[in-house]
Design goal:
The protein has 411 residues and is α/β, with parallel strands linked by helices. The chain is 34% helix and 22% strand. α7 links the parallel β9 and β10. α6 runs parallel beside α7, α8 runs parallel beside α9 and α12 packs across α13.
Protein backbone atom coordinates (compact mmCIF):
# COMPACT_ATOMS: atom_id res chain seq x y z
CA UNK A 1 0.00 0.00 0.00
CA UNK A 2 0.92 3.68 -0.14
CA UNK A 3 2.98 4.35 2.96
CA UNK A 4 6.11 5.47 4.66
CA UNK A 5 7.26 3.27 7.53
CA UNK A 6 8.38 6.00 9.98
CA UNK A 7 5.55 6.60 12.43
CA UNK A 8 7.26 8.42 15.30
CA UNK A 9 6.63 11.89 13.82
CA UNK A 10 2.98 11.47 12.82
CA UNK A 11 0.76 14.30 14.05
CA UNK A 12 -2.70 13.09 12.99
CA UNK A 13 -4.11 9.76 11.93
CA UNK A 14 -7.50 9.67 10.21
CA UNK A 15 -9.20 6.31 10.48
CA UNK A 16 -12.45 4.54 9.62
CA UNK A 17 -13.15 6.21 6.26
CA UNK A 18 -13.29 5.54 2.53
CA UNK A 19 -10.74 7.70 0.69
CA UNK A 20 -11.12 9.02 -2.86
CA UNK A 21 -7.46 9.42 -3.80
CA UNK A 22 -7.43 9.91 -7.60
CA UNK A 23 -4.09 8.11 -7.42
CA UNK A 24 -3.60 6.47 -10.85
CA UNK A 25 -1.47 3.75 -9.23
CA UNK A 26 -4.62 2.40 -7.62
CA UNK A 27 -7.05 2.64 -10.54
CA UNK A 28 -7.82 5.10 -13.36
CA UNK A 29 -11.11 6.11 -11.75
CA UNK A 30 -11.74 7.16 -8.16
CA UNK A 31 -8.65 5.50 -6.71
CA UNK A 32 -10.86 4.44 -3.82
CA UNK A 33 -9.40 2.99 -0.62
CA UNK A 34 -12.18 1.46 1.46
CA UNK A 35 -11.93 1.17 5.24
CA UNK A 36 -8.77 3.20 5.03
CA UNK A 37 -6.49 5.34 7.16
CA UNK A 38 -4.35 8.39 6.46
CA UNK A 39 -1.47 9.75 8.52
CA UNK A 40 -0.19 13.33 8.53
CA UNK A 41 3.32 14.57 9.22
CA UNK A 42 4.26 18.26 8.94
CA UNK A 43 0.95 18.94 7.19
CA UNK A 44 1.58 16.36 4.46
CA UNK A 45 0.35 12.85 3.80
CA UNK A 46 2.82 10.40 5.32
CA UNK A 47 0.83 7.16 5.07
CA UNK A 48 -2.30 6.10 3.20
CA UNK A 49 -3.80 2.68 2.87
CA UNK A 50 -6.22 0.16 4.28
CA UNK A 51 -6.62 0.38 8.04
CA UNK A 52 -5.73 -3.28 8.36
CA UNK A 53 -2.25 -2.45 7.06
CA UNK A 54 -1.62 0.51 9.37
CA UNK A 55 1.78 -0.08 11.03
CA UNK A 56 2.31 0.21 14.79
CA UNK A 57 2.41 3.89 15.72
CA UNK A 58 5.45 4.91 17.77
CA UNK A 59 4.26 8.40 18.73
CA UNK A 60 1.00 9.73 20.20
CA UNK A 61 -0.72 11.45 17.28
CA UNK A 62 -4.22 12.83 17.32
CA UNK A 63 -6.46 9.98 16.12
CA UNK A 64 -9.56 11.15 14.27
CA UNK A 65 -12.30 8.56 13.79
CA UNK A 66 -14.29 9.60 10.71
CA UNK A 67 -17.06 7.10 11.46
CA UNK A 68 -17.26 5.49 8.04
CA UNK A 69 -17.58 8.73 6.08
CA UNK A 70 -16.26 9.47 2.61
CA UNK A 71 -13.10 11.59 2.25
CA UNK A 72 -12.01 13.39 -0.90
CA UNK A 73 -9.09 15.67 -1.65
CA UNK A 74 -9.82 19.25 -0.69
CA UNK A 75 -11.77 20.83 -3.53
CA UNK A 76 -10.08 23.34 -5.86
CA UNK A 77 -11.93 26.22 -7.53
CA UNK A 78 -9.65 27.28 -10.38
CA UNK A 79 -11.74 30.13 -11.81
CA UNK A 80 -13.50 32.76 -9.68
CA UNK A 81 -14.17 36.50 -9.66
CA UNK A 82 -14.74 36.55 -5.92
CA UNK A 83 -13.80 40.18 -5.22
CA UNK A 84 -16.31 42.76 -6.46
CA UNK A 85 -18.61 45.55 -5.37
CA UNK A 86 -22.39 45.63 -5.70
CA UNK A 87 -24.53 42.98 -7.37
CA UNK A 88 -26.35 42.52 -10.67
CA UNK A 89 -29.63 40.89 -9.73
CA UNK A 90 -31.46 43.53 -11.80
CA UNK A 91 -29.59 42.43 -14.93
CA UNK A 92 -30.60 38.86 -14.28
CA UNK A 93 -34.21 40.04 -14.26
CA UNK A 94 -33.60 41.87 -17.56
CA UNK A 95 -32.26 38.69 -19.14
CA UNK A 96 -35.30 36.77 -17.97
CA UNK A 97 -37.37 39.38 -19.81
CA UNK A 98 -35.44 38.78 -23.01
CA UNK A 99 -32.35 41.00 -23.00
CA UNK A 100 -29.14 39.26 -24.06
CA UNK A 101 -25.78 39.38 -22.26
CA UNK A 102 -24.36 41.37 -25.17
CA UNK A 103 -27.27 43.85 -25.20
CA UNK A 104 -26.87 44.54 -21.50
CA UNK A 105 -23.13 45.01 -21.91
CA UNK A 106 -23.57 47.31 -24.89
CA UNK A 107 -25.98 49.48 -22.85
CA UNK A 108 -23.34 50.06 -20.16
CA UNK A 109 -24.34 47.22 -17.90
CA UNK A 110 -22.64 43.90 -17.47
CA UNK A 111 -19.03 44.04 -16.36
CA UNK A 112 -18.97 47.84 -16.42
CA UNK A 113 -21.72 48.12 -13.81
CA UNK A 114 -19.60 46.01 -11.47
CA UNK A 115 -16.57 48.15 -12.36
CA UNK A 116 -18.40 51.26 -11.15
CA UNK A 117 -19.37 49.58 -7.86
CA UNK A 118 -15.89 48.14 -7.32
CA UNK A 119 -14.16 51.45 -7.96
CA UNK A 120 -16.47 53.10 -5.42
CA UNK A 121 -15.94 50.46 -2.70
CA UNK A 122 -13.23 50.76 -0.10
CA UNK A 123 -10.59 48.08 0.29
CA UNK A 124 -12.16 47.02 3.59
CA UNK A 125 -15.62 46.75 2.04
CA UNK A 126 -14.27 44.58 -0.75
CA UNK A 127 -12.39 42.41 1.74
CA UNK A 128 -15.41 41.86 3.99
CA UNK A 129 -17.78 40.90 1.18
CA UNK A 130 -15.23 38.61 -0.47
CA UNK A 131 -14.27 36.99 2.85
CA UNK A 132 -17.91 36.04 3.40
CA UNK A 133 -18.03 34.37 -0.01
CA UNK A 134 -14.72 32.61 0.55
CA UNK A 135 -15.91 31.24 3.90
CA UNK A 136 -18.92 29.78 2.08
CA UNK A 137 -16.59 28.07 -0.38
CA UNK A 138 -14.42 26.77 2.46
CA UNK A 139 -17.43 25.26 4.22
CA UNK A 140 -18.37 23.51 0.98
CA UNK A 141 -15.01 21.72 0.79
CA UNK A 142 -12.81 24.23 -1.06
CA UNK A 143 -9.21 24.41 0.20
CA UNK A 144 -7.58 26.06 -2.84
CA UNK A 145 -9.05 28.88 -4.90
CA UNK A 146 -8.08 31.18 -7.74
CA UNK A 147 -9.38 34.77 -7.61
CA UNK A 148 -9.17 37.24 -10.47
CA UNK A 149 -9.04 41.01 -10.50
CA UNK A 150 -10.69 42.72 -13.47
CA UNK A 151 -13.43 44.89 -12.03
CA UNK A 152 -11.17 47.91 -11.71
CA UNK A 153 -9.91 48.49 -15.25
CA UNK A 154 -7.61 51.19 -13.94
CA UNK A 155 -4.31 50.74 -12.15
CA UNK A 156 -5.48 52.05 -8.77
CA UNK A 157 -8.51 49.76 -8.50
CA UNK A 158 -6.78 46.73 -9.99
CA UNK A 159 -4.06 47.08 -7.35
CA UNK A 160 -6.75 47.50 -4.69
CA UNK A 161 -8.40 44.25 -5.78
CA UNK A 162 -5.09 42.38 -5.85
CA UNK A 163 -4.27 43.58 -2.34
CA UNK A 164 -7.66 42.31 -1.16
CA UNK A 165 -6.97 38.94 -2.80
CA UNK A 166 -3.62 38.75 -1.05
CA UNK A 167 -5.27 39.65 2.28
CA UNK A 168 -7.82 36.87 1.84
CA UNK A 169 -5.04 34.33 1.42
CA UNK A 170 -3.19 35.67 4.45
CA UNK A 171 -6.19 35.72 6.79
CA UNK A 172 -8.23 32.63 5.86
CA UNK A 173 -7.12 28.97 5.82
CA UNK A 174 -7.37 28.60 2.05
CA UNK A 175 -4.60 28.66 -0.54
CA UNK A 176 -5.42 31.68 -2.71
CA UNK A 177 -3.95 32.18 -6.19
CA UNK A 178 -4.27 35.68 -7.63
CA UNK A 179 -4.80 36.33 -11.34
CA UNK A 180 -4.60 39.77 -12.96
CA UNK A 181 -7.49 40.31 -15.38
CA UNK A 182 -6.97 43.94 -16.29
CA UNK A 183 -8.08 43.15 -19.85
CA UNK A 184 -11.56 42.08 -18.75
CA UNK A 185 -13.51 44.78 -20.60
CA UNK A 186 -12.92 48.18 -22.15
CA UNK A 187 -13.32 50.88 -19.47
CA UNK A 188 -15.64 53.80 -20.34
CA UNK A 189 -12.81 56.33 -20.33
CA UNK A 190 -11.23 54.39 -23.21
CA UNK A 191 -14.42 54.03 -25.27
CA UNK A 192 -13.60 53.43 -28.94
CA UNK A 193 -9.88 53.29 -28.03
CA UNK A 194 -9.20 49.63 -27.19
CA UNK A 195 -5.62 49.61 -28.47
CA UNK A 196 -4.75 52.52 -26.20
CA UNK A 197 -6.17 50.66 -23.22
CA UNK A 198 -4.22 47.53 -24.14
CA UNK A 199 -1.10 49.69 -24.25
CA UNK A 200 -1.84 50.85 -20.72
CA UNK A 201 -2.36 47.26 -19.56
CA UNK A 202 0.97 46.23 -21.06
CA UNK A 203 3.07 49.29 -20.30
CA UNK A 204 1.70 50.46 -16.94
CA UNK A 205 -0.33 47.76 -15.24
CA UNK A 206 1.71 44.63 -15.85
CA UNK A 207 4.97 46.17 -14.60
CA UNK A 208 3.17 47.37 -11.45
CA UNK A 209 1.57 44.12 -10.26
CA UNK A 210 4.67 42.05 -9.61
CA UNK A 211 4.34 40.21 -6.31
CA UNK A 212 0.55 40.58 -6.24
CA UNK A 213 -0.40 38.08 -8.95
CA UNK A 214 1.01 34.88 -10.38
CA UNK A 215 -1.04 34.70 -13.58
CA UNK A 216 -2.52 37.00 -16.22
CA UNK A 217 -5.87 36.45 -17.94
CA UNK A 218 -7.79 38.19 -20.74
CA UNK A 219 -11.37 38.06 -22.00
CA UNK A 220 -11.17 37.47 -25.74
CA UNK A 221 -14.55 37.96 -27.37
CA UNK A 222 -16.43 40.23 -29.77
CA UNK A 223 -17.62 42.33 -26.81
CA UNK A 224 -14.13 42.44 -25.28
CA UNK A 225 -10.71 42.09 -26.97
CA UNK A 226 -9.60 40.72 -30.32
CA UNK A 227 -6.80 38.31 -31.20
CA UNK A 228 -4.01 40.86 -31.87
CA UNK A 229 -4.80 42.62 -28.59
CA UNK A 230 -4.90 39.26 -26.82
CA UNK A 231 -1.55 38.20 -28.23
CA UNK A 232 0.03 41.48 -27.14
CA UNK A 233 -1.18 41.13 -23.54
CA UNK A 234 -0.25 37.47 -23.22
CA UNK A 235 3.21 37.90 -24.75
CA UNK A 236 3.90 40.85 -22.47
CA UNK A 237 2.71 38.83 -19.47
CA UNK A 238 5.08 36.00 -20.37
CA UNK A 239 7.91 38.51 -20.73
CA UNK A 240 7.19 39.69 -17.17
CA UNK A 241 7.32 36.12 -15.84
CA UNK A 242 3.60 35.48 -15.35
CA UNK A 243 1.69 32.33 -16.13
CA UNK A 244 -1.02 33.00 -18.69
CA UNK A 245 -4.63 31.88 -19.13
CA UNK A 246 -7.61 33.04 -21.15
CA UNK A 247 -11.40 33.45 -21.26
CA UNK A 248 -11.83 31.80 -24.66
CA UNK A 249 -14.52 30.77 -27.12
CA UNK A 250 -17.42 31.50 -24.76
CA UNK A 251 -19.88 33.37 -26.98
CA UNK A 252 -18.33 32.81 -30.41
CA UNK A 253 -15.38 31.11 -32.08
CA UNK A 254 -12.37 33.40 -32.45
CA UNK A 255 -9.41 31.01 -32.40
CA UNK A 256 -8.36 32.38 -29.03
CA UNK A 257 -7.80 29.03 -27.30
CA UNK A 258 -5.41 27.97 -30.05
CA UNK A 259 -3.51 31.25 -29.79
CA UNK A 260 -3.25 31.06 -26.01
CA UNK A 261 -2.12 27.43 -26.11
CA UNK A 262 0.59 28.26 -28.64
CA UNK A 263 1.81 30.95 -26.22
CA UNK A 264 1.93 28.43 -23.34
CA UNK A 265 -1.35 29.08 -21.51
CA UNK A 266 -1.86 26.92 -18.44
CA UNK A 267 -5.61 26.88 -19.09
CA UNK A 268 -8.28 28.07 -21.48
CA UNK A 269 -11.65 28.64 -19.86
CA UNK A 270 -15.32 28.51 -21.00
CA UNK A 271 -14.71 26.90 -24.44
CA UNK A 272 -18.29 26.43 -25.65
CA UNK A 273 -17.20 27.29 -29.23
CA UNK A 274 -13.83 25.53 -29.11
CA UNK A 275 -12.87 23.84 -32.40
CA UNK A 276 -10.62 20.90 -33.21
CA UNK A 277 -7.48 22.95 -34.06
CA UNK A 278 -7.87 24.65 -30.69
CA UNK A 279 -8.16 21.31 -28.91
CA UNK A 280 -5.10 19.96 -30.71
CA UNK A 281 -3.09 23.03 -29.77
CA UNK A 282 -4.14 22.66 -26.13
CA UNK A 283 -3.21 18.98 -26.15
CA UNK A 284 0.18 19.76 -27.67
CA UNK A 285 1.15 22.32 -25.03
CA UNK A 286 -0.54 20.76 -21.99
CA UNK A 287 -3.21 23.43 -21.47
CA UNK A 288 -6.11 22.44 -19.24
CA UNK A 289 -9.68 22.92 -20.48
CA UNK A 290 -11.60 24.64 -17.68
CA UNK A 291 -15.34 24.37 -18.22
CA UNK A 292 -17.69 26.72 -16.41
CA UNK A 293 -21.18 25.19 -16.34
CA UNK A 294 -22.48 27.79 -13.88
CA UNK A 295 -22.28 30.60 -16.43
CA UNK A 296 -23.60 28.30 -19.18
CA UNK A 297 -26.63 27.59 -16.99
CA UNK A 298 -27.14 31.12 -15.71
CA UNK A 299 -26.92 32.70 -19.18
CA UNK A 300 -29.19 29.99 -20.61
CA UNK A 301 -26.66 29.10 -23.31
CA UNK A 302 -27.18 26.22 -25.72
CA UNK A 303 -23.76 25.65 -27.33
CA UNK A 304 -22.08 22.92 -25.31
CA UNK A 305 -18.29 22.59 -25.11
CA UNK A 306 -16.81 19.68 -27.12
CA UNK A 307 -16.31 17.27 -24.23
CA UNK A 308 -15.98 14.14 -26.39
CA UNK A 309 -13.19 15.69 -28.48
CA UNK A 310 -11.38 16.90 -25.36
CA UNK A 311 -11.58 13.35 -23.95
CA UNK A 312 -10.37 11.79 -27.18
CA UNK A 313 -7.28 14.01 -27.27
CA UNK A 314 -6.60 13.61 -23.55
CA UNK A 315 -6.95 17.28 -22.65
CA UNK A 316 -7.56 17.43 -18.87
CA UNK A 317 -11.02 18.82 -18.07
CA UNK A 318 -11.22 21.06 -15.02
CA UNK A 319 -14.33 22.73 -13.64
CA UNK A 320 -14.61 26.15 -12.03
CA UNK A 321 -17.48 27.98 -10.41
CA UNK A 322 -16.80 31.23 -12.34
CA UNK A 323 -18.30 32.84 -9.23
CA UNK A 324 -19.16 36.39 -10.28
CA UNK A 325 -22.09 38.79 -9.86
CA UNK A 326 -23.27 38.86 -13.45
CA UNK A 327 -23.16 35.45 -15.05
CA UNK A 328 -22.44 32.80 -12.40
CA UNK A 329 -23.34 33.57 -8.77
CA UNK A 330 -22.42 29.98 -7.86
CA UNK A 331 -20.66 29.01 -4.63
CA UNK A 332 -20.87 25.21 -4.54
CA UNK A 333 -18.33 22.84 -6.11
CA UNK A 334 -20.83 19.99 -5.93
CA UNK A 335 -23.42 22.00 -7.84
CA UNK A 336 -20.77 22.79 -10.45
CA UNK A 337 -19.98 19.07 -10.70
CA UNK A 338 -23.67 18.21 -11.03
CA UNK A 339 -24.15 20.81 -13.77
CA UNK A 340 -21.14 19.44 -15.64
CA UNK A 341 -22.73 16.00 -15.62
CA UNK A 342 -26.26 17.04 -16.55
CA UNK A 343 -25.44 19.87 -18.98
CA UNK A 344 -22.12 18.80 -20.51
CA UNK A 345 -22.23 15.01 -20.24
CA UNK A 346 -19.31 14.44 -17.88
CA UNK A 347 -19.34 11.26 -15.85
CA UNK A 348 -19.47 11.51 -12.03
CA UNK A 349 -15.79 10.60 -11.72
CA UNK A 350 -14.83 13.14 -14.39
CA UNK A 351 -16.80 15.87 -12.66
CA UNK A 352 -15.27 15.29 -9.23
CA UNK A 353 -11.81 15.03 -10.74
CA UNK A 354 -12.66 18.33 -12.43
CA UNK A 355 -13.10 20.10 -9.08
CA UNK A 356 -10.05 18.45 -7.50
CA UNK A 357 -7.09 17.07 -9.44
CA UNK A 358 -7.70 18.69 -12.83
CA UNK A 359 -8.56 22.02 -11.23
CA UNK A 360 -5.21 21.79 -9.44
CA UNK A 361 -3.57 21.09 -12.80
CA UNK A 362 -5.24 24.24 -14.18
CA UNK A 363 -3.38 26.22 -11.48
CA UNK A 364 -0.16 24.22 -11.86
CA UNK A 365 -0.34 23.04 -8.23
CA UNK A 366 -1.19 19.37 -8.79
CA UNK A 367 2.15 18.43 -7.24
CA UNK A 368 0.79 19.77 -3.94
CA UNK A 369 -3.00 19.34 -3.93
CA UNK A 370 -5.89 17.82 -5.85
CA UNK A 371 -5.32 14.15 -5.01
CA UNK A 372 -4.45 12.12 -1.93
CA UNK A 373 -0.92 10.88 -2.45
CA UNK A 374 2.22 10.63 -0.36
CA UNK A 375 3.97 13.94 0.09
CA UNK A 376 1.02 16.09 -0.92
CA UNK A 377 -0.71 18.42 1.50
CA UNK A 378 -3.25 16.75 3.76
CA UNK A 379 -6.11 18.85 2.37
CA UNK A 380 -9.23 16.81 3.03
CA UNK A 381 -12.97 17.24 2.64
CA UNK A 382 -15.11 14.87 4.72
CA UNK A 383 -18.55 13.97 3.39
CA UNK A 384 -21.54 12.33 5.04
CA UNK A 385 -22.02 10.14 1.99
CA UNK A 386 -21.61 6.44 1.28
CA UNK A 387 -20.34 6.23 -2.32
CA UNK A 388 -18.30 8.65 -4.46
CA UNK A 389 -20.96 9.11 -7.14
CA UNK A 390 -23.20 10.76 -4.54
CA UNK A 391 -20.95 13.82 -4.57
CA UNK A 392 -22.28 15.23 -7.88
CA UNK A 393 -25.65 13.47 -7.55
CA UNK A 394 -27.41 15.38 -4.77
CA UNK A 395 -28.76 18.87 -5.48
CA UNK A 396 -29.32 21.50 -2.81
CA UNK A 397 -27.72 19.37 -0.10
CA UNK A 398 -24.55 20.25 1.83
CA UNK A 399 -23.02 16.94 2.97
CA UNK A 400 -19.58 18.34 3.89
CA UNK A 401 -19.07 17.69 7.60
CA UNK A 402 -15.45 18.81 8.00
CA UNK A 403 -12.62 20.41 6.06
CA UNK A 404 -8.93 19.95 6.90
CA UNK A 405 -6.13 22.14 5.58
CA UNK A 406 -2.69 20.55 5.89
CA UNK A 407 -4.17 18.21 8.50
CA UNK A 408 -5.74 20.98 10.60
CA UNK A 409 -9.50 21.26 10.86
CA UNK A 410 -10.58 24.62 9.43
CA UNK A 411 -14.32 24.21 8.78
Amino acid sequence: MLNQVRTNDWEQVFTNADFITFDPQLDPGWGLIQQGALAVQSGKIAWLGESANLPPIESSPEVIDLKGRLVSPGMVDCHTHLVFGGNRADEWAQRLEGASYQEIANAGGGILSTVRATRAATEEQLYQSAASRLKTLLASGITTVEIKSGYGLDLETELKMLRVIRSLGASLPVDVHATFLGAHALPPEFAERPDEYISMVCNEMLPAIGGLATAVDIFTESIAFNLPQTERVLRTAVDHGFQIKIHAEQLSHMGSAKLAAQLGAISADHLEYLDLPGIEAMAACGSVATLLPGSFYFLNETQRPPVADLRERHVPIALGSDMNPGSSPVMSPLLVANMACTLFGLTPVESVRGVTLNAARALRVAHQVGSLELGKLADLAVWDLSVPSELPYLIGHQPCTAVYKAGRRVA
